[in-house]
Amino acid sequence: DFGSVAEAHQALIDQVVEVDEDLMATYLEQGSIAPAQLHAPFEKALRFLPETLGIRAALATTLAAQVLTTPLLLAKFGTVSIIAPVVNLFVLPIVPLAMAVGALTSLMGWVPVIGQVVGWLAWLPHMAIVRCILWFSQVPAASIALPREWWWPLAAAGVAVILVRHFRHAS
Q1: Residue 12's closest CA among 62, 70, 59?
Q2: Label partner for 68 (CA 20 to 30 A): which of 35, 58, 74, 99?
Q3: 3-state DSSP call for residue 145?
């Protein structure tokens, strides 16, 4: 039932938005928010992590995106990845390179020899991403199937942890 998933997702977004007054104003004005707008509240909640190598920012970005996509993934596949935030710490640095060489391949693909060479170069970062994901997928309990009746309580618990961390550090 996509209606109940949509309602649960909306309630989750409402709770995350309440962490930041500016974000709440934007949400009330526009009726929706983008993952980029959730980044700051998550980064505040993750202040205990080091900024070294962009770990905190990468994890905040990952969590912001997951808050918005997890309900859809649950509705479509019935599973949730437990280690996705950790995997993204390894994968995210490779993504800009993969996108750049992919774009270069689309531009140069029509040139017989050069297009093929650029295509081979594009294969490397994409294969690194796939191999990383496949390697982490072998971790026991990397993803778990969740019965529908567990979705909302788990989402609410996750948001509660983030809110508690945020309000502890805010005061």
Answers
A1: 70
A2: 99
A3: strand
User: Contact 160/45 with Cβ under 8 angstroms?
Assistant: no
> Residue for token digits 């997702």?
9
Residues 6+ apart with CB under 8 A from 114: 108
Task: Dig out the tokens for 130 from the structure.
Answer: 């796939």
- The residues of the chain scoring below 50 in pLDDT are 1-2
Tell how strand 79-81 and strand 143-145 pair up.
antiparallel
| Inter-residue contact 45 to 165 (CB < 8 Å) | yes
Q: Check: CB of residue 42 under 8 Å from CB of residue 60.
A: yes
Q: Which residue has the tokens 């505040």?
A: 44
Question: What would the pLDDT profile of 43-78 be if each residue is shown by its tens digit?
Answer: 777 777 788 877 888 888 888 777 777 777 777 777
Q: pTM of the entire structure?
A: 0.60
To which residue do tokens 């502890």 refer?
168
Assigned token pair, 79: 């599973």
Q: How far is CA 74 from CA 12, 51, 168, in A?
A: 14, 31, 30
First to last CA, the chain: 40
Report angle CA 137, 143, 147 to the nearest 5 degrees: 155
